[in-house]
Task: inverse folding
């Protein structure tokens, strides 16, 4: 599971970095989304990877070791919300830039 | 007494109220009514900041004022912390935002929609970032202020603004990802996000986790350096700042200082205790980056022909100066840096506003002439016999000229204004700290002094071009009182600060004792915990 997750994070991040270095605004926004997915998975992984751990204690006498760390989940939730908002905002700016410059190049002109 | 305890959250709540009121009022009514409401809100914010500042200045025993949100016990719940450093930054924000708001109400607020809403959202994010005592909450407030700043950077639209803002947004979104990665690494190794708790837990960390933790701190540091405008991560800054609307750019003058603040806060908290065992983590890198930033900013300032770009490069110079001061990690130097951050922010804000006033004064042909003079050299000036007695300078021009001169003196750090006092305090602190000055001391001193000279040259050259070479004679320039007042206010405040420098430095030394003293900050926030 560790290997799968770390591979997923690595591939997403690498693709994201590659894409934000591309000259087209559409590639940049897809790259930013991929980077934020990678970061969210990474945040989740930092709460220790555990299989079959409950987020709440089911029995009154439940041991703390059976308990999944809720903090990373709260962090990821917030980060996802903020990430979506920022991506949406960037999309609007991207469209505005496309409309004003007539080009989807990040510098606003082709060459 | 119960009411007083809510003081740390007031600056955030007042700005939030500003956002809500402006949304409810709507954007279609842009009369004196709206202006009065926003003026009241910003003044209230200033009052809250002053009360917070003076409460911390008076209460010598209170090192830091913690305000647990929702009354959750501290390491688990999110906490707001007001110490002297935070109070200083909040007060600076309040002063600068009131001035920018006054300026914007003269005419800029009607150039687009929802100016005041975004404006208050930005101050809310700034206040929150300064007051929070929790790493993730810092991220949330960062995003809040950035979201508002995206809107404000685009304010007034236009092709240049959109292009600059797009680069700005991409860079900051990447920085936010880095912020999250760094924070996640710190949480993974330390198991807490409360800054005071991190400071407590660092010495107790398992040796095997140390590398991962430092990697997290380094990634976080890169994110902060991007926001602080450090070389080589500053490339978005000049374009964004010089294409933003003037009152917005004035408020942006404090945004790079958020990066400085975050670095100072975390670095002194987390790595401050390690200072005894030799070099602090990343100190050399920060020194080198600081010197490079100052060098780049100074040279950039020399190359500028337009005042708004010059002001952006001056922001980079001040960012470099502050970075150097943090890297020096010496209480006396940091105290000087705190004075510097206040006056440099106020003066840079005034300069952005002043640029707009000068633009109104100068006819556009004169500006083109000034640039072409630079490019092609003067044609031989024909001596005009009729004009041996120069034209009298109108009062408005004289005032603007004086404002420019004061801003130049503050930014270059010449006596008697506080820019000099702050730089002097930093340099004398650096020399007092070590008995034998090291190479680092000389780099520090040299960078500070040389940047002062280069900034002075750049400012004087621009001033000569603006006020001597290209002012139209005879024409009466109409300057709005509402636009001139905030500029004069900000610069007058700089002059007042130089008169009050003694007590202020005492206050800043107290502030520095809280942030540099091991365990003082953590002890104030985590009561009952054994301090290392």
Result:
């Amino acid at each position: 599971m560790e290997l799968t997750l770390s591979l997923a994070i690595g591939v997403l991040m690498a693709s994201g970095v590659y894409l934000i270095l591309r000259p087209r605004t559409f590639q940049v926004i897809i790259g930013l989304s991929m980077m934020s997915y990678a970061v969210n998975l990474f945040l989740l992984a930092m709460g220790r990877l555990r299989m079959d751990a409950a987020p709440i204690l089911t029995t009154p006498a439940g041991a703390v070791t059976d308990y999944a760390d809720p903090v990373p989940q709260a962090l990821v939730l917030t980060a996802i919300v903020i990430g979506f908002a920022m991506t949406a905002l960037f999309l609007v700016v991207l469209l505005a830039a496309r409309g004003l410059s007539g080009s989807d190049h990040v510098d606003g002109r082709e060459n | 007494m119960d009411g007083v305890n809510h003081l740390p959250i007031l600056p955030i709540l007042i700005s939030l109220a500003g956002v809500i009121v402006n949304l409810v009022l709507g954007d279609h009514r842009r009369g004196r009514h709206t202006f009065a409401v926003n003026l009241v809100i910003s003044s209230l914010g200033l009052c809250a900041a002053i009360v917070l500042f003076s409460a911390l200045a008076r209460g010598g025993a209170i090192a830091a004022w913690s305000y647990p949100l929702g009354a959750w016990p501290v390491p688990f719940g999110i906490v707001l912390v007001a110490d002297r450093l935070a109070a200083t930054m909040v007060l600076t924000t309040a002063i600068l935002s009131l001035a920018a708001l006054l300026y914007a109400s003269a005419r800029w607020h009607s150039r687009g929609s929802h100016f005041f809403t975004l404006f208050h959202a930005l101050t809310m994010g700034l206040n929150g970032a300064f007051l929070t005592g929790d790493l993730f909450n810092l991220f949330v407030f960062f995003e809040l202020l950035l979201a508002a700043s995206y809107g404000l950077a685009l304010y007034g639209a236009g092709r240049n603004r959109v292009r600059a803002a797009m680069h700005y947004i991409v860079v900051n979104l990447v920085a936010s990802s880095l912020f999250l990665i760094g924070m996640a690494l710190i949480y993974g190794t330390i198991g807490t996000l409360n800054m005071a708790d991190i400071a407590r837990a660092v010495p107790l960390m398992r040796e095997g986790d140390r590398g991962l933790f430092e990697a997290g701190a380094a990634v976080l540091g890169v994110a902060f350096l991007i926001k602080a405008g450090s070389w080589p991560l500053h490339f978005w800054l000049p374009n964004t700042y010089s294409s933003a609307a003037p009152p917005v750019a004035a408020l942006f003058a404090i945004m790079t200082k958020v990066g400085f603040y975050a670095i100072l806060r975390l670095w002194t908290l987390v790595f401050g205790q390690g200072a005894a065992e030799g070099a602090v983590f990343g100190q050399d890198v920060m020194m080198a980056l600081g010197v490079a930033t100052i060098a780049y900013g100074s040279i950039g300032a020399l190359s500028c022909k337009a005042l708004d770009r010059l002001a952006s490069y001056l922001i980079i110079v001040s960012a470099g100066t502050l970075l150097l001061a943090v890297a020096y990690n010496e209480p006396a130097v940091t105290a000087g840096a705190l004075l510097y951050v206040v006056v440099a922010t106020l003066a840079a804000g005034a300069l952005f506003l002043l640029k707009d006033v000068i633009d109104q004064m100068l006819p556009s042909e004169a500006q083109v002439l000034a640039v072409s003079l630079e490019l092609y050299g003067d044609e031989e000036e024909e001596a005009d016999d009729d004009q041996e007695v120069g034209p009298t300078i109108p009062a408005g021009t004289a005032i603007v000229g004086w404002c420019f001169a004061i801003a130049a003196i503050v930014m270059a750090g010449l006596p008697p204004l506080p820019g000099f006092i702050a730089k002097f305090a930093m340099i004398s602190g650096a020399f007092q700290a070590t008995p034998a000055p090291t190479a680092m001391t000389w780099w520090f001193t040299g960078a500070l002094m040389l940047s002062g000279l280069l900034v002075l040259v750049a400012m004087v050259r621009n001033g000569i071009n603006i006020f001597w070479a290209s002012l139209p004679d005879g024409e009466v320039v109409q300057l709005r009182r509402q636009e001139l007042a905030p500029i004069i206010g900000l610069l007058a405040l700089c002059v007042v600060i130089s008169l009050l420098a003694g007590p202020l430095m005492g206050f800043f030394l107290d502030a520095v004792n809280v942030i540099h003293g091991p365990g003082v900050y953590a002890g104030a926030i985590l009561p009952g915990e054994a301090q290392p």
Observations:
- Chain B touches chain A at residues 136, 139-140, 143, 146-147, 150-151, 154, 157-159, 162-163, 165-167, 169-170, 173-174, 176-177, 180-181, 183-185, 187-188, 193 (CB under 8 Å).
